[in-house]
Amino acid sequence: MLKEERQNHILDKIKLNRKVLSSDLSIELNVSEDTIRRDLNDLSSKKLIKKVHGGALPIDTKAPSYEERKFYSLKEKNSIAKKAVNLIKDGQVIIMSGSTTNLQLAKIIPSDVNATIYTYSLPIALQLTEHPSIEIIFIGGKLNKPAQVTVGLDVVSSISQLRADLCFMGTGGINVLNGMTEPNWEVSHIKKCMIEASNKVIVLCTNNKINEIKRYSVTPLNQINTIITDLDPNNQIFIPYKEKGVEIL
């Protein structure tokens, strides 16, 4: 990978995750930590990032928009979606959160599947309009413009009255001790309701969310049935998750 490509990747990573660690970037990009440090110094000198001990932070405090997030880690999200779509069967009632990984899943649901999908995500609802036999029920409420999802009491009330076979949800972070967590309080509360309303809880999780923790708790690990990830399910990182009874796909 060329220097410019490497640095653009670092900038994308910081924009999405709000931080990067030199050690993680070294492994991910298959270069030495000295090379990463030089890249970070270069980006810092251009005032594109804030370099800190062991890594870097963004200069701005604005969270990435939905439009920005949906193009990040697209290969990984497509890998997860291809695993998840095999769990969707005729006649099911499904709730989908507003994650960008769920958007990729919505794109590949086979045209012969007949199911009902509830969602509070505008992009996912619009994507599903292209499916010939999915019944779409959009859950209205106050619109969170950057995330393109509805939030608030109306959403919570609607979901609490549902009974779904499956819920597919993204996550801000997940680890063994803290379970699933989110950076947004309203979203964390909606996801709690999704879990209570569903017979099976499936978390779609790109590798950068594994062993991460965000500010607001959603649910302990024992309330999650399955984690679908772009990593090899036999990766040692998942041993403690499996010991808690979570299926890894």
UniProtKB/TrEMBL annotation:
Entries under PANTHER family matching the protein: AGA OPERON TRANSCRIPTIONAL REPRESSOR-RELATED, HTH-TYPE TRANSCRIPTIONAL REGULATOR SRLR-RELATED
Gene Ontology MF: a single term: DNA-binding transcription factor activity
Keywords of the record: DNA-binding, Transcription, Transcription regulation
Domain HTH deoR-type as annotated: residue spans: 3-58
The keyword DNA-binding appears for this protein: yes
Protein name as catalogued: DeoR family transcriptional regulator
Keyword Transcription included in the entry's annotation: yes
Annotated SUPFAM superfamilies: NagB/RpiA/CoA transferase-like (SSF100950), Winged helix' DNA-binding domain (SSF46785)
InterPro entries: Carb_Metab_HTH_regulators, DeoR-like_C, DeoR_HTH, NagB/RpiA_transferase-like, Tscrpt_reg_HTH_DeoR_CS, WH-like_DNA-bd_sf, WH_DNA-bd_sf
Pfam families to which the protein is assigned, alphabetical: DeoRC, HTH_DeoR
SMART domains in the record: DeoRC (SM01134), HTH_DEOR (SM00420)
